[in-house]
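Researcher: Hi, I'm a grad student and pretty new to this. My advisor asked me to get structures for two proteins we've been looking at. I'm not sure of the right format, so I'll just paste the first sequence and hope you can take it from there.
Model: That works fine. Here's the first sequence with its structure tokens right after it:
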Amino acid sequence: MQVKGQSSAADKMEVNQAKQEHLLALKVMRLTKPTLFTNMPVTCEDRDLPGDLFVRLMKDDPSTVKGAETLILGEMLTLPQNFGNIFLGETFSSYISVHNDSNQVVKDILVKADLQTSSQRLNLSASNSAVSELKPECCIDDVIHHEVKEIGTHILVCAVSYTTQTGEKLYFRKFFKFQVLKPLDVKTKFYNAESDLSSVTDEVFLEAQIQNITTSPMFMEKVSLEPSMMYNVTELNNVSSSSESESTFGGMSYLQPLDTRQYLYCLKPKPEFAEKAGVIKGVTVIGKLDIVWKTNLGERGRLQTSQLQRMAPGYGDVRLSLELIPDTVSLEEPFDITCKITNCSERTMDLVLEMCNTRSVHWCGVSGRQLGKLTPNASLAIPLKLLSSVQGLQSISGLRLTDTFLKRTYEYDDIAQVCVVCPYSSPES
């Protein structure tokens, strides 16, 4: 019973302290840009009873656009009437004012502003030093800025501590909760494009789909890809003309609500990494997207994605690629190709090359040729000759590599295609 009585007394003390009137008043306001005032025009036909009364009233209204009174959008600015929406990547700005409402001088005033998120607590105060004194009807003003980098619930905690003339130290806090919303929906797709030419080996195409999920249009100032140290990037979002490069989206880069744009980038491994088959094998880091936009009256937002990763195509222990192959060949005439064989394993291989004819493509040369030993990450270029007995687009198949150490055979079919044409044209009758 005694414990219960002591607890009740403590509760009463806390209630009395909470009800105590403080000498200082705290006001917190969010700083945002004004918006355009929208009016609702009321119109009618001339033969109706009001006649041109509504039109004359709209012309006299100072909020309407002269010459376009029936449009909803006006030309006057209005201050925000509510807290509004805050989106990820925007800068949250707030005005904090502490006013002395009493008739006495207050000393040692300390104002702190912290932003509490789901993962951290940030100090946003411009100064952590206390103000020595504050006279009656005077105030302490501060403006805080913070670039929002998390979505979800945010709580702005403003704390004020001060000392009265009698030496009593007082303290109070206020909490302001707001939600940070997601402005963009970003989806990425990777396309692996193995090239037959060694000068552009292992190209990776990145498609980024960006959707505006807010309720207002956005001006897309920049959408770029910052590649990792292993890649060079080429943007494919411009059309080159004789004079200058123009965006594929046109001159006005606006993204309307719920609209989606697709951006395309081509990444190529740097030469020092392209030569090492084991470096790009497996999961590799491509880079990150950097998106900058503006909304309404120029509010700027910026988002950076996390490092994008793609799964590189698996080549197994031995990779076979084509370094030289003609686009068009003549029917039943030999042509040359050059194959590149790379040891992607961690052991030395002793390889034997076999060539198997297909219905349309025939190999010229000796099958079962010894290629010798190939060390890890080493490559070997082999010139080969073949001919086609069928016209049209023909697929090159039938190469077999056998590792004599492990008695393992690697089959390579449909490695490339050539167009076979007849060099003889039949005379017209």
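Researcher: Oh nice, that was easy. Here's the second one.
Model: And its structure:
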Amino acid sequence: MISAGFGSAVCVRPVVSFSNTIRRVHNHGRVTCLATSMSSASMTVARDAEYELENRKYELLNIIQDTQRGLVTTADQRSTIEEAMVVVEGFDAGKEIDLSKLDGTWRLQYTSAPDVLILFESAARLPFFQVGQIFQKFECQNESRGGLVRNVIKWSVPRLLEENEGATLIVTARFSCVSARNIYLKFEEIGLQNINISDDLQAVIAPAILPRSFLSLQILQFIRTFKAQVPVTSPERWSMCRQSVGGLYYLSYLDKNMLLGRAVGGGGVFVFTRAHTLIC
């Protein structure tokens, strides 16, 4: 009875159509191929856009190359520079400030800001004054809505200080992000440090033909390590207190090696490139 029961059982196996199997495999191959093609096309578009951006950045840097950081420009040159900046800015429009990219040191390549150009003009007119490199150093790596920025100006007095690197003027400010692209700067202090006197001045203080006395060595050490810091405040006519000077700054473009900015209110434009050297 038991064997008869098993013998009467019917085993039903699914019917598999070979043609349906081939069709599914074929369709799967088409989907995979289509996805690969779309991915390849997206990569090509992204690569072309990056190539175009780098070309536009190079064009901007090429245009400003002979302007002495903005000191020597004509109206036509300024217009051309403005147009080149707008093109580059278009690649980054609408994106929020990435403080991790902003963090670090940036070297000034061009500006139309009057308060900076007056330094260049003074250096061009006065034989006893030199202006070296100018940097902006942002410290905001672990911050979410702001940080610290130092405007660093290298300057010198020929024959008294080392050429272009004789002393360092630092204007320190706190900044906070007030919108996707605007930061508000609240200036805190101006400092003078890193004084490197010339060989001529050292010879006056401690002549090379005589052993350096303790006093002369103390004088040299004092000059090298001297630091002066002055708070930045603006007088209030109708108030008993003083308030810190501030300003609004629009970061119009930012990537790993270029920073473009505009001082809101007609304060001029700035072109910076990433600096890979320690400045202070």
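Researcher: Is there anything I should tell my advisor about the second?
Model: You could mention this: The chain has a mean pLDDT of 78.
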